[in-house]
Design goal:
Helix content is 27%, strand content 29%. The protein has 4 helices and 7 strands. It has a 7-stranded mixed beta sheet, sandwiched between helices. It is globular.
Amino acid sequence: MLAEEYQKRRRLPRRLQPSTSEPATFSFEIVDATEEHLPDVLALYRHYVRNSVVTFDEQPPTISKYRARFRHLQKLGYPFKVALSPTGVLLGYASVFPFREKSAFRKTVESSIYLGPAATGRGLGAALLENLIESCRAAGLNEMIAVIADQGAEASLALHTKFGFVENGRMAKVGFKFERWIGIIMMQKSLRS
């Protein structure tokens, strides 16, 4: 065959060609939550209530109850952080609330971190927890407690361990959700210098 007899080389359609551009970076900003964030925060929390055992709530709270809780946490001076995409979409949140209602526990808080499904495994949980820890220190809190489900929360256990939380107790079969018993693992981090 002569060179002029060769057919032109075929090319893949553009949509099937490998991308030549760099993949988009995952970026976010962590800010103090405001009441305007609460509908999105509650929507994310509802996802976890309905689909996982990481919260033992079986019914999501109403927006009015959630707003009242938020205002109470604000009054106590407790941090409540949200992670937002560059376009303002909520990616996750982290907050603390009283570990127990008795006044002697006022310097001890329980932490919560929830990430949107598209934001997991991208470093956002670590960024939120680090920010939350520093905000708790700045607020004069002494101890942080994490109460983690003993099933399906391996990433949360690893994250808290990475930030110096120490396991200090387990309780088996203390919650019943989705027709099964679930235990908890309690972890603690001291914020005292």
